[in-house]
Design goal:
Blueprint lengths: L8 E2 L5 E5 L2 E5 L6 E4 L6 E6 L5 E6 L6 E5 L5 E5 L7 E6 L5 E6 L6 E5 L9 E6 L6 E6 L2 H4 L23 E5 L2 E8 L2 E6 L1 E2 L4 E2 L8 E4 L4 E4 L4 E4 L27 E7 L2 E6 L4 E5 L2 E6 L14
Antiparallel strand pairs: 1-2, 2-3, 3-4, 5-6, 6-7, 7-8, 9-10, 10-11, 11-12, 13-14, 14-15, 15-16, 17-18, 19-20, 20-21, 22-23, 23-24, 24-25
Length: 305
């Protein structure tokens, strides 16, 4: 049984790519034939296909795991990245131009490594930068659109009027996981993260804060995101005072985000999905909207206080 999350993808020909044990399968839907990438010596823990569909990056578990880059159609190995992380490669993402790869480790610091191929063919791959990810688990990484997130663009921090000095380099990547979402900038070989801002007071997420309480718009319940429990309410309402409706879900007070499982970007916005099914929409570092869960009924009460 494979425990890899989000590991089914398509290559440029429409073939299905997925891991099984130490292999990665390339399945042709047209001929029902299978090819295999056999470059890993341990269980595959992460797989990502480049946007162009030509390349696959896959990571493995182990004390000193490798990240492999290979041809998405033939399975031919192109580059071996590392060893750098420890325990496992938990997440991998490609840049839009397929010249950069970010990998996140399963070590205690959830290390983040940025790999680059100047030629784009990955025969000249090298590690460009690295940093600690977060002390909490990191579940996803994704690149941001430079047309909207680079220096001077709408989603990058603006230079305050009258303040001299170098302008903000903009964001090129986001990561997220347990109790955090981070936006990353790159200057030379230095990676710098900034925590996402939550609520009307623009307060950064802090894992030491009390659990965030959110109203569930479809069930008249509050959810405590540190535990999968809910408590019925007689008069449900948003923190802003409006009545909870399926089409209306107001952001809660600035306290703490629920654990994030996945994220993707579309133009000037980042979309992240939480454990309860809520979708968080970010513009810059700010969470500007939360879409309610699509669950028609609340989950069963488990482990009550």
């Amino acid at each position: 049984m494979c425990s890899t999350r989000g590991a089914v993808a398509y290559n440029g020909l429409g073939d299905v790519v997925w891991p099984t044990s130490s292999l990665v399968v390339i399945y042709s839907r047209a001929t029902h034939a299978q090819r295999f990438f056999r470059g890993h010596k341990a269980e595959v823990s992460a797989v990502s296909v480049s946007r162009c569909g030509r390349y696959v990056a896959s990571g493995e578990r182990g004390n000193r795991p490798l990240t492999m880059v290979w041809d998405a159609q033939t399975g031919a190995e192109l580059a071996s990245l590392g060893p750098f992380h420890r325990h496992s490669v938990a997440s991998i993402a490609w840049s839009p131009d397929s010249r950069r790869v970010v990998s996140v480790g399963g070590d205690l610091e959830h290390s983040v490594a940025l790999w680059v191929s100047e030629s784009g063919g990955w025969d000249d791959a090298r590690r460009l930068a690295y940093s600690c990810g977060d002390h909490q688990a990191v579940a996803f990484a994704c690149f941001l659109d430079p047309e909207h997130w680079a220096a001077g663009k709408p989603c990058a921090p603006m230079q305050p009027t009258g303040v001299e000095g170098p302008r903000h380099p903009g964001y090129f990547m986001a990561t997220g996981g347990t109790d955090h979402v981070k936006f990353w900038s790159l200057e030379g070989r230095t990676l710098t993260p900034e925590r996402g801002l939550w609520g009307p007071d623009a307060k950064a997420f802090d894992s030491n804060d009390p659990p965030l309480v959110l109203p569930h718009p479809l069930s008249n319940s509050f959810f405590f995101f540190k535990r999968a429990i809910h408590f019925p309410l007689t008069r449900p309402s948003c923190p802003c005072g409006c009545v909870i409706l399926p089409s209306c879900f107001c952001p809660p007070p600035a306290r703490k985000v629920q654990p994030m499982l996945c994220g993707c970007t579309l133009g000037p916005r980042l979309f992240t999905g939480g454990v309860s099914g809520h979708i968080y929409i970010w513009r810059g570092r700010n969470c500007e909207k939360v879409h309610s869960s699509l669950f028609s009924t609340p989950p069963t009460i488990t482990n009550p206080p």
